[in-house]
Specification:
476 residues; 2 domains; 22 strands
Length: 476
């Protein structure tokens, strides 16, 4: 079946105009490549766990060296847009090592009594509550910042997802960067029982105070940017925390090593696995992509290492990520979860949006989806937690494809189109398929429908770069 008007008049007009030009004045330069997409929903791969975000907004006013709580008046709107527009289903709540400290610096900062730079100097200043990691002194832990994001970010996200009949997944991520001068007198990296203490207290607090179940514990964020978090210490920390949490009735999934460079992930995990019990504790091999473009050459190695241990993989931060990274991580890397990074940044006009935030806050107080991430969000909104990636092959370097079956039985085919292309599909189930398209660096979604015949074959054309999604709802 030849399809020319599959997503509405405006897009169809562009296709027909391009075709007219190609047939007359610009036959050589305008010629489209042909991509063959073969879908096989009988073949299965990883199960998607979700699309993650970190509660980073515009609370750190670095330009004025102060706290900015203006986002709080829009917290419910932000949560709805993250869920409905960006497709978010997971949250990373960060557990800074400096929470173990007798002084509550966050409350002073939020009250305007401490500048941003002074507050930042204490981020990772660890001072032991006492000399017994099995008995916590409540005065030695300051939970105000974790409480702040649980109350104002995680709970609104949970409620927005619940309204859709879905459940928020919570990832508690420990952070211990080396960037500040103040380090304190304690090393959680070297003292695994002390690490287990702070993690267990945080999990208990989120459950008892906020009703938030911690589904995952990310052992350490970017150990290659931290002090003393060797692979071996990651293994010891995971083993100790798993045992301590298990004794308290908690059984979260442990994630590691979450290296900033994907190229370091496997070696760091291998070192962690030299510690007895670490293989049983750590079940998700996570990485970041800050060594791009070199990172892409390591995705297959990460996938194979995870498969050899019966683990899953996740790409859990890369602020400069684009759609090609997403398709590579899901398709080549078997990623079950994926994160760009922050929730909402501020911008003077949406055209200047960068890629490190899913949403942006404009001077008019409008919260809008970023054009840089709208293509990814089209995938997130259509591929939901529990979806299984199925078979999909592609023949052209200009078009990458992914296919999924959601828990409700709906089938999804997503394409990342990097050049004008003619696209020939095979293997689709006959019936009505809903279609969506977002052109690169825009937010407008063009939609339509196509009826696929009994052969499961049809053909489409795209004169623009962007992301195309086809979805077939389950039969009633």
């Amino acid at each position: 079946m030849r399809l020319q008007s599959w997503i509405g008049r405006s897009f169809s007009h562009k296709i027909l105009l391009a075709a007219a030009l190609c047939s007359t004045l610009l036959q050589v330069s305008c010629a489209q490549s042909t991509a063959h997409i073969a879908v096989d929903f009988s073949k299965t791969s990883q199960t998607i766990d979700g699309w993650e975000v970190t509660p980073r907004l515009w609370e750190y006013d670095k330009a004025n060296n102060q706290y900015n709580g203006a986002w709080l008046k829009q917290k419910d709107e932000i949560a709805r847009k993250l869920v409905d527009d960006a497709g978010v289903t997971r949250v990373r709540l960060e557990l800074r090592s400096g929470i173990e400290n007798p002084v509550d610096y966050w409350s002073m900062f939020a009250a305007g009594k401490l500048s941003y730079l002074d507050f930042k100097s204490h981020f990772y200043e660890k001072i032991n509550d006492n000399n017994d990691p099995s008995v916590a002194d409540p005065a030695g832990f300051q939970w105000s910042q974790l409480d702040h994001y649980a109350t104002n970010f995680a709970i609104p996200l949970r409620d927005a997802l619940a309204a859709r009949g879905e459940r928020l997944r919570v990832n508690l991520c420990y952070v211990d960067f080396r960037w500040t001068d103040k380090k304190g007198t304690l090393s959680h990296a070297d003292q695994s029982e002390e690490y287990a203490e702070i993690v267990t207290l945080a999990v208990q607090r989120l459950k008892e105070k906020f009703g938030l179940e911690v589904d995952m514990v990310e052992v350490i964020l970017e150990p290659d940017n931290s002090d003393r978090w060797s692979g071996e210490n990651i293994g010891r920390g995971a083993v100790a925390a798993k045992a301590r949490l298990g004794a308290e009735g908690f059984n979260p999934v442990f994630i590691a090593p979450s290296t900033a460079a994907a190229s370091r992930a496997v070696d760091t995990l291998n070192a962690a696995f030299t510690i007895p019990g670490a293989k049983e504790a750590i079940r998700v091999l996570a990485y970041h992509r800050y060594d791009n473009p070199w990172a892409d050459s390591h995705i297959g190695t990460i996938r194979d290492r995870a498969r050899s241990e019966g683990m899953s993989t996740s790409m859990l931060e890369y602020t400069d990520a684009d759609t090609s990274d997403l398709f590579s991580d899901l398709g080549r890397g078997d990623a079950t979860a994926w994160q760009l990074y922050g929730a909402v940044g501020t911008i003077d006009k949406i055209e200047n949006a960068t890629t490190d935030y899913l949403l942006f806050h404009l001077p008019s107080d409008v919260i809008a989806l970023s054009p840089k991430t709208s293509e990814m969000a089209l995938v997130f909104r259509n591929v939901r937690p529990g979806a299984v990636r199925t078979g999909s092959t592609f023949s052209s370097g200009n078009v990458a494809s992914l296919a999924f079956r959601n828990l409700d039985g709906s089938e999804v085919v997503a394409l990342n189109i990097d050049a004008p292309s003619t696209i020939k599909f095979s293997g689709l189930a006959p019936g009505l398929w809903k279609t969506s398209f977002v052109a690169r660096n825009t937010t407008k979604v063009a939609t339509g429908n196509v009826e696929v015949g009994v052969t499961g074959d049809f053909e489409a054309s795209s004169s623009e770069r962007g992301v195309m999604v086809l979805k077939r709802e389950p039969k009633q």
